[in-house]
Every structure is written in C-alpha cells, then in structure tokens.
Amino acid sequence: MFADQLTQEQRQVVFDLAANLAAADNDVSDEEIQYLKDFSTAYGIEYDLDKSDINISAALAKLDSKKARVITLQELIKISYKDGHFGEEEQDKIFLLAQKMGLNNTDLLMRIEAWVRQGFDWVYEGEQMLEG
Q1: Which domain of life is it from (predicted)?
Q2: Where are the domains of the chain?
C-alpha cells in the first residue's frame, strides 16, 4: 500500500480527510466503513468517523511533499470508489482538496483516478478468475 510511504502524522491526515469525505454524501456505506476500519487497524489510528470539524488547511499543511499529496489523493479517490461509484459530490470535494494542495492539474487528477479504477478492475478480474 502506498500509504506505507507516509509518516504516521500524514496517515492520520488521510484517515481524517477520508472520514470527512465518506460523510460528504450523508451516507457512509458499509464498504467505506470497512475501508476506514482497515486503514485505522493497519496504521494504529483511532477509529473515529466524526471528522466534520477538522481544520482542512492545517491537515493539508502536514502533506509536505508532492508524493504525500498524490498518495493522499489516491487514497481519497479509492474510498470514493468503495460504494461502487465516484459521485459528483465526491469528485468536487476531491478536486477542491487537490486545488488547496496546489495540485489543480486536471491531467494529474485524471491519471490518479485512472490508476485507482484500474486497481479495482484488477482485483475484480482476479476474483472472477478464481471463482470461474
């Protein structure tokens, strides 16, 4: 997992932003909850979904490299896909976060989104092969 390359403080930022994003559509799916539980367990982060009051600017300031920002966006897009679709509200929120990170490059965002989608396709294809 690419989040292994982040500091513990940066992983906390990813979790906080992901929990905040999951609640964006006012409907946190079972898949999103499982992702957040898995992430918190993997990195020893307290599992707490109430992230509506986080200071996003302060959180983003902890992502002090392009690599950390790209990994964070990748994780946020990944949780957005967990409920089966990358909704418009989620896309808008991620694009806004990317702009605040100084990554308002549409091509880069599209590449990250394609990377995540290909990962999901790869897992799905493997599951189909193993079942078939």
Answers
A1: Bacteria
A2: 2-131
User: Buried b / exposed e across 3-34, counting CB within 10 Å, b at 16+?
Assistant: beebeeebbbbbbbbbbbbbebbeebeeebee
Kindly tell me if the per-residue pLDDT of 84 is higher than 90.
Answer: no
Instruction: Please enumerate in sequence order all residues whose Cβ is within 8 A of that of 27, keeping only pairs 6 or more positions apart, or say none.
Output: 83
Query: Which fold, 2-131?
Result: TerB-like (1.10.3680)
Q: According to the model, what pLDDT value does residue 18 have?
A: 93
CA 53 to CA 112: how far, in whole Å? Answer: 27
pLDDT in tens, 58-74: 999 999 999 999 999 99
| pTM of the predicted protein model | 0.87
